[in-house]
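Exercise 7b. Backbone tokens:
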């Protein structure tokens, strides 16, 4: 429970921890609409998870909703016509940036449609698991809107031509097409959350420093000039050789046992 304006309310985002995996559940009603309240609670959850050295993977999912997240609550658009940056855009962008900047691998488990701002949340995660029969879309063009943050992340995933098609038309993308285009990493015949938990368990069993550093280098490959990225890779590789985890992993390999990584 959380206190707001002297009243006790149920958080619209809930966080749980088990076996080095954190789960962030959107619990904001059937559609999990993006509101200021959801963004505030989600940002708090991200802050809580970011500082946990024991967390090796994070799953973001839509709880029991009929949508993973159906995007913004359009009923509030009229009131923010002239100061959208202050009331909505900048804060939403900050939350998406914070989600993308989590130091450990993140997975979006999409068991129900991810639309507009909901699709943007999924795109801010490192990996996406989609249940077969579920669609994703950037439908903003259908109402004259713009998926600005999502346009950039989507383009990095699928390339300019495919991103333009999805943005210009607002068409939904079926699971098979999403997988073929590289929008999602896996399509699950059963619950996407179950498949995401299996994937998260596999990730959590690997070297936590290895995965955190790999995430930084993949991001650097997209953001930095090659020489700067290579300089970062050299420094991080040195830190890996200095870590206890690498030497535990090598010892476990020769002893034919599972390694007991400590993240240091």
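Sequence design result:
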């Amino acid at each position: 429970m959380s206190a707001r304006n002297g009243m006790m309310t149920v958080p619209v985002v809930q966080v749980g921890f088990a076996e080095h995996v954190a789960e962030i559940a959107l619990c904001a009603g059937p559609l999990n609409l993006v509101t200021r309240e959801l963004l505030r609670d989600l940002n708090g959850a991200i802050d809580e998870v970011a500082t946990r050295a024991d967390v090796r993977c994070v799953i973001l999912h839509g709880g029991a909703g009929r949508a993973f997240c159906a995007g913004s609550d359009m009923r509030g658009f009229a009131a923010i016509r002239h100061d959208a940056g202050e009331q909505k855009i900048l804060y939403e962008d900050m939350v998406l940036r914070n989600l993308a900047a989590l130091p450990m691998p993140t997975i979006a488990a999409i068991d129900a449609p991810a639309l507009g701002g909901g699709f943007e949340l999924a795109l801010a995660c490192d990996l996406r698991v989609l249940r077969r029969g579920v669609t994703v879309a950037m439908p903003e063009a259908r109402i004259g809107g713009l998926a600005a943050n999502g346009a950039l992340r989507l383009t990095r995933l699928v390339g300019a031509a495919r991103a333009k098609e999805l943005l210009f038309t607002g068409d939904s993308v079926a699971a098979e097409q999403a997988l073929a285009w590289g929008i999602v990493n896996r399509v699950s015949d059963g619950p996407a959350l179950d498949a995401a938990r299996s994937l998260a368990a596999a990730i959590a069993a690997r070297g936590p420093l290895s995965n955190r550093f790999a995430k930084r280098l993949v991001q650097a490959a997209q953001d930095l000039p090659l020489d700067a990225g290579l300089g970062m890779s050299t420094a991080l590789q040195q830190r890996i050789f200095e870590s206890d985890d690498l030497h535990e992993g090598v010892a476990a390999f020769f002893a034919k046992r599972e390694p007991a990584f400590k993240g240091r």
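Instructor comment: The first helix runs from residue 36 to 50. The CA atoms of residues 151 and 159 lie 10 Å apart.
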